[in-house]
Amino acid sequence: EAGVVQSPRYKIIEKKQPVAFWCNPISGHNTLYWYRQNLGQGPELLIRYENEEAVDDSQLPKDRFSAERLKGVDSTLKIQPAELGDSAVYLCASSLEDRGSYEQYFGPGTRLTVT
Amino acid sequence: AQSVTQLGSHVSVSEGALVLLRCNYSSSVPPYLFWYVQYPNQGLQLLLKYTSAATLVKGINGFEAEFKKSETSFHLTKPSAHMSDAAEYFCAVSADRTSYDKVIFGPGTSLSVIP
Q1: Cα-Cα-Cα-Cα dihedral sign, residues B23, A41, A58, A6
Q2: Residues 6+ apart with CB under 8 A from A53
Q3: How far apart are CA B32 and CA B97, in angstroms?
Q4: Strand A31-37 relative to strand A88-95: parallel, antiparallel, unpaired?
């Protein structure tokens, strides 16, 4: 079974430029998460999808961040324009609630550096 | 709101020694609790989880954790450290009983294993 796929793995951009991250979850997983992980910290949830519906986007900075999950499968997270403080690792995860599993499967992340 | 604290941002142990990583949570109701491990440049991987069954939970790679409600703790242990255990460890708690797949991560503890 293939894991969660993310691309690109690394991205370096100048501030004020746009950037997009892509995530393909594990096949059949209906819940998809985007997290931001700052250096030396734990992941912080940005947005959570159940199928194609965003059920929790309370922590997403909506002035510059947007996300979509068309057809309830893969997802894209966009930042426009990027700021220096957006430098972080962006993690995608997916899960399938199966008899109380609640395990999230994480991708390797995209490391964003804003200069 | 739920929160997680991990005492010690960095822990060093000798190979073969006991590993003890501390986690305390704040919760007004019995939560679901998780330990995840993150190896360099990789996503997080579930080590073990507590979901209101047995209070002593066994996970992968010889790790186990004990849920102690009276102490609001969920410390992670391993009897004998191996070099391959060097990684970042995150404790996490479910946000509430109606949304088990929304978890709050602690800041993490970096484990070093000395040969």
Answers
A1: negative
A2: none
A3: 8
A4: antiparallel
Burial (Cβ within 10 Å: 0-12, 13-18, ≥19) of residue B74 = buried
Considering only CB atoms, which chain A residues are within 8 Å of B41? 108
- Kindly report the nearest CA distance between residue A43 and chain B, in angstroms: 6
| Backbone φ and ψ of B93, nearest 5° | -130, 140
Distance between CA atoms of residues B33 and B30, nearest Å: 9
Q: Kindly report the backbone phi and psi dihedral angles of residue A93, in degrees, each rounded to the nearest multiple of 5, phi listed first.
A: -140, 160
> Which tens digits make up the pLDDT trace of B30-73?
678 999 999 988 889 999 998 877 889 999 999 999 999 889 99
Contact yes or no for A103 and B46 at CB 8 A? yes
| φ, ψ dihedrals at A69, nearest 5° | -140, 80
Average pLDDT, chain A: 92
**Three-class DSSP category at B84:** helix
Identify the sign of the CA torsion B33, B88, A1, B48. negative
Distance from CA of B85 to the nearest CA of A (A): 18
Q: Which of A45-59, A98-112, B10-24, B39-53 has the lowest mean pLDDT?
A: A98-112
Name chain A contacts of B108, Cβ cutoff 8 Å.
40-42
Looking at the DSSP bridge assignments, the partners of residue A65 are A79
Q: Is B59 part of the contact surface with chain A (CB cutoff 8 Å)?
A: no
